[in-house]
Design goal:
With 258 residues, the chain is α/β, with parallel strands linked by helices. 46% of the residues lie in helices and 15% in strands. It has a single domain (6-257), classed as Aldolase class I (TIM Barrel, Alpha-Beta Barrel), CATH 3.20.20. The termini are close together. Bound molecules: 2-phosphoglycolic acid (PGA). The site of 2-phosphoglycolic acid (PGA) has 13 residues, from strand 8. Substrate binds at residues 10-12, 174, 214, 235-236.
Length: 258
């Protein structure tokens, strides 16, 4: 089954509202020209209202980088799904390794958030990946499969093509140290096999799995050329609109469009 590629920008803790406006204004017409690829931008909460408004009638998916699974109440500092929907978010990152490693999010919380997003029809991009120590000790698959399994358990019967996974080896994030295309394919192919065992072929063949970790215009083509890689989640190289557009164009040309 041909899956539609996705190129996703993760701005992390970067950009003021004015910077976000300038970026989005430049991105929208160029993303409209990119055929056969979904373009998403995961922006800070403070920019989301504005990016969501600007992207409303466009093909660009405005997304948040985090949220909490309760709808309202005494959760100081948190943002809920209805709040995200209210400002035009259509997707959300869940369990980015910086949330897990810096802010202590565990597999149970990540799974619960994923379920809440799926129930609400907000596209979750669920991030999984191992540390350098785990990989060097031969524990990559134990870590990654455990993260994926925990999400599937929580979803129960929910979830179809309305979930995206992102394999992001932590040692490759922001380090310039990209996984080889073969490493990316190996992990992502194994995630797809796990989805097949747990949920059957239709589910496994329909779910998009992105690679993330130091993706840039110079290496996007070889990563996208891998059979099971359906796109990329990009931090550093997404901060400049020209560089992100080059990545979008690289994904659109990968020949995987539906
Ligand atoms: P990077 O970040 O592209 O800067 O390595 C990727 C990510 O954290 O999603």
């Amino acid at each position: 089954m041909a899956r539609r590629p996705m190129m996703a920008a993760n701005w992390k803790m970067n950009k003021t509202v004015t910077e976000a406006q300038n970026y989005t204004a430049a991105l929208l017409p160029r993303a409209a020209d990119a055929e056969g690829v979904d373009v998403a931008v995961f922006v800070p909460f403070t920019c989301l209202h504005e990016v969501g408004r600007m992207a409303e009638d466009s093909s660009v998916i405005a997304g948040a980088q985090n949220f909490y699974y309760e709808d309202s109440g005494a959760f100081t500092g948190e943002i809920s799904v209805p709040m995200l929907e209210d400002v035009g978010a259509r997707a959300v990152l869940v369990g980015h390794s910086e949330r897990r490693e810096v802010f202590g999010e565990n597999d149970a919380l990540v799974a619960r958030k994923t379920k809440r997003a799926v129930e609400a029809g907000l596209l979750p991009v669920v991030c999984v990946g191992e540390t350098k120590e785990e990989r060097d000790a031969g524990g990559m698959w134990e870590k990654v499969s455990g993260q994926v399994r925990r999400v599937l358990e929580e979803l129960g019967e929910l979830g179809g093509g309305d979930i995206v996974f992102a394999y992001e080896p932590i040692w490759a994030i922001g380090t310039g140290d990209t996984a080889t295309p073969e490493d990316a394919q190996d992990a992502i192919g194994r995630i797809r096999e796990l989805l097949r065992e747990e949920r059957g072929g239709d589910f496994a063949d329909g779910v998009r799995i992105l690679y993330g970790g130091s993706v840039k215009p110079a290496n996007v083509a070889e990563i996208m050329a891998q059979d099971d890689v359906d796109g990329a989640l990009v931090g550093g190289a997404s901060l400049e609109v020209d560089s992100f557009v080059q990545l979008v164009e690289g994904a659109g040309n990968s020949g995987e469009d539906a």
